[in-house]
Design a protein that fits this description.
Beta-Lactamase, alpha/beta, 2 domains, nine-stranded mixed sheet, 32% helix, Rossmann fold
Length: 417
């Protein structure tokens, strides 16, 4: 975030406290210190670094002591160059999402479901000021003319904000945190995402260059699984990743990432996913991956996979694997594709659908299916069906076809996870 990011009113009443505690009001001296340091730092150029903030605190002449000075630097740095009162939550490496529903309604997700966070705001104006500053740092604006905004910030934060009256409960703020850790297949198996048979199928799908989509709901682990699978690609392959907001970070020596761009404050400079797919085809990708198919870019992706670009894919939101054809048809309609065009291109371009689900705190591969043209429409035929919560695997009617493509024994019997 630049030193020229839009300033925000001081966090006069925010703090990190145990649940049930009310935040104490800062003294007038605290507010004056914050305003003085803010004015000093923001008047300079360059990034807002802890050393600049510390120098500004020292220049005020206030005798805070070592602990007090460190606390002041941390608090002011978070406000000017971070997530404000939410910054303390980011230090927990398990936190992946933060949601602000109101001054005393802050929630977080550590992978075990949503839980109340020990953070409070002084009121609705402070939440709105923080949201406006974060959005401005992403090069967009949040106001009555643009009440719903999604931006990505340096540091791996994806911020989504909604203002009243679109939100009936005040300013809503959602922060998704991109963590650098990428799981290995063994770690995902230990976490219960799949068993040995499903792992073998997934690994062979990458090795045999099957084109696939990973489907599932928000937070089901689609991006996590995709990043791990891409890390299995041969080191000599060139991976071109296309995303609306950069989240994929596979462990691979040759990765090129392209990110879409929203319009500026005047609405100019838009670069959408469809354009990025077209540009990526000129970059000689060995594998072309669209992080999330959710619009007209599906036309370019299907076209690319029908012209020799095998082994690629992406993720898509869907309730079940069987619902993927309907989603593809709907997305194709956004690109002006008729149902027959979507059906024919998809049946030729995509080999498999891997559906991930969430049961309580457990994320797991629930189904692996094969896309096929039934003549009357596009459908997903089940190859492997995993019981609720990952309790067992059953072969489906499409298993012999998938096994043949993977070079596996197509024997049909129930097997353990």
């Amino acid at each position: 975030m630049s030193a020229h990011a839009a300033p925000v009113p001081p966090d006069t009443n925010s703090t990190l406290r145990p649940p049930g505690h009310r935040p104490r009001a800062h003294s007038a001296a605290d507010v004056r210190l914050l305003e003085s340091v803010r004015e000093s730092v923001m008047s300079g150029t360059g990034p807002v670094t802890p050393s600049r903030v510390a120098a500004a605190v020292h220049a005020t002449g206030r005798l805070l002591g070592t602990a007090g000075a460190l606390a002041a630097v941390e608090s002011i740095s978070a406000e000017l160059n971070g997530l404000g009162p939410l910054q303390a939550l980011v230090r927990d490496p398990a936190v992946t999402d933060i949601f602000v529903n109101g001054p005393e309604a802050v929630w977080l997700d550590r992978g075990n479901g949503l839980e109340k966070a020990p953070v409070v705001f002084s009121g609705e104006p402070q939440i709105r000021a923080l949201a406006a500053r974060l959005v401005a740092a992403g090069g967009r604006r949040l106001d009555d003319g643009s009440p719903c905004v999604d931006v990505r910030l340096d540091g791996g934060y994806r911020v989504h904000a909604v203002l009243p009256p679109i939100s009936t409960a005040g300013t809503l703020l959602s922060v998704r945190i991109r963590r650098e850790k990428v799981f290995t297949m063994g770690e995902l198996r230990q976490l219960g995402m799949f068993g040995t048979l499903v792992q073998d199928v997934l690994e062979r799908s990458i090795e045999r260059r099957l084109s696939f989509l990973i489907s599932g709901a928000t937070g089901s682990g689609k991006t996590t699984l995709l990043a791990t699978l891409l890390g299995l690609c041969h080191p000599a392959e060139r991976l071109v990743l296309i995303e609306d907001a950069s989240e994929l970070n596979p462990v691979h020596p040759h990765v090129v990432s392209l990110e879409s761009r929203h319009g500026n404050l005047e609405g100019n400079g838009v670069v959408d996913l469809g354009e990025l797919v077209r540009q990526a085809l000129r970059m000689r990708p060995d594998r072309l991956v669209v992080g999330e198919c959710r619009g007209a870019e599906v036309r370019e992706l299907l076209s690319a996979m029908n012209t020799g670009h095998t082994g690629g894919g992406g993720t898509i939101h869907a309730n079940t694997a069987a619902a993927v054809p309907a989603r593809l048809t709907a997305l194709g309609a956004l690109a002006g594709m008729g149902q027959d065009a979507v059906r024919l291109q998809t049946a030729s371009a995509l080999d498999a659908v891997v559906h991930v689900a969430r049961a309580g705190n457990n994320r797991y591969v629930a189904c692996i299916g094969v896309l096929e043209d039934t003549g009357s429409g596009l459908a997903v035929s089940v190859a492997l069906d995993v019981g609720g919560g990952g309790t067992g695997v059953r072969y489906g009617p499409a298993w012999p076809r998938l096994a043949d493509r993977l070079g596996l024994d197509p024997g049909v019997e129930d097997v353990p996870v």
